[in-house]
Amino acid sequence: MGIDLMEWLHLGIRWIHIITGIAWIGASFYFIWLDMNLTPPEKDGRKDKDGVGGELWAIHGGGFYEVQKYRVAPPALPDHLHWFKYEAYFTWLSGFVLLTLLYYFGAEIYLIDQNVADISTDTAILIGLGSLFGSWVIYDFLCKTPLIRHQGVFGLVLFLLLTLAAWGLSQIFSGRGAFIHVGAIIGTIMAANVMMVIMPGQRALVSAAEKGEEPDPTPGLKAKQRSLHNNYFTLPVLFIMISNHYPMTFGHEFSWLVLAAIAAVGVLVRHYFNMKNQGKAKQGFILLPISFVLFFVIAWAATPRTEDLSEGPKVPFAQVQEIIQNRCASCHAAKPSDEGFDTPPKGVKLETAAQIIREKTRIRQQSVDTDAMPLGNVTEMTEEERKMIGRWIAQGASKD
Ligand code: HEC
Questions:
Q1: Does residue 216 surpass a pLDDT of 50?
Q2: 101: CA distance to ligand 1 center in Å?
Q3: Residue nearest ligand 1's atom 16 by CA
Q4: CA 227-232-237 angle, 5° bins
Q5: Is the confidence at residue 162, as pLDDT, over 80?
Q6: Are 362 and 348 a contacting pair, CB within 8 Å?
Q7: What angle do CA 295, 262, 309 make, to 5 degrees?
Q8: 60-98: per-residue pLDDT in tens?
Q9: 123 in ligand 1 pocket by Cβ < 6 Å?
């Protein structure tokens, strides 16, 4: 398949991934919001006797809605019961296809960084896949221990374990590869929660109701727990998905720490909204300024404080052009010589003086402030060369 058709395939799948992801996360936000805003019906009233545990009125899109949630199950099942699962399954499937196309077929470029670990493609892929499925096994096991009864402690343990995974993966993969795998781990846990716990729990409720038996509330409660976990996972996972546009995150020396800290901000923000939904907006409000400040503290701490690069002898442009010719132009050329590319990635060409000067800011972001480029450092750029380019830019990026 030609590379251009491949690009279209990527685009199509990525589009599906975003659409299904929005539908899934939207449903997660909506139902957790709904659940937390329910008010109990009048005591001993008709609804209460029918088993309604909470109700809610809303207006949206020009119409009134009345929703009621049964404590366990309604006395009789309706003809049409809506289930929410395909959003989750298709988000996971499309994500997994993307991961495979980009990071597994392109492992040498996207997943492996020789400077981090010199591993073979097969090893890298096995570790990647193992991390996804292994994490689910560990998480699911933890959910079955008594720890699950202590929500806060459970959350903290999970957070530390995921941070450990981020650290471990960052010792094996490229920064991007490590980030995307943490995202895929969380996504896999979320989708497996739907498939392995939430859906079976709901099926048990429905089948008991169909048989007219008194349903056991336990599977429903377990499903609820997992659904709440999924809700807290949403913001960190969204951050990871956009992070690959920001090399200062995955390209940072302590990328795993940046990831953990920003994920913590996401969890705090989610927690604030969940408190607000329970009518505790005032008590929770402090979380918003804390998240805001924390985000900027992370940004400040993660910004590279390179020593003033302009110091030192003038770097002649010819030298810079030579470095870029050797380290970047195999991919970033009108006709790349690298086998993996038929066209310059992201349209970035670094062949002529004018092109290099025009792209100086992005060159600095990608290959001086961070080592996001060259991808996987396939062209083996040295620290010395990175500094040289940084110095040339600090000295005014002139053409002589
Ligand atoms: C092995 C091929 C390869 C090499 C070598 C390479 N790049 Fe890239 N570059 C890519 C790919 C692929 C992308 C698109 C990444 C993405 O999808 O986000 C890219 C993207 C970029 C971008 C655009 C980033 C953005 O999203 O705005 C810049 C700037 C860049 N590279 C600079 C460089 C510089 C500077 C070098 C040399 C120091 C270099 N690249 C070496 C493959 C390469």
A1: yes
A2: 18
A3: 346
A4: 110
A5: yes
A6: yes
A7: 70
A8: 999 999 999 998 888 888 999 999 999 999 999 999 999
A9: no
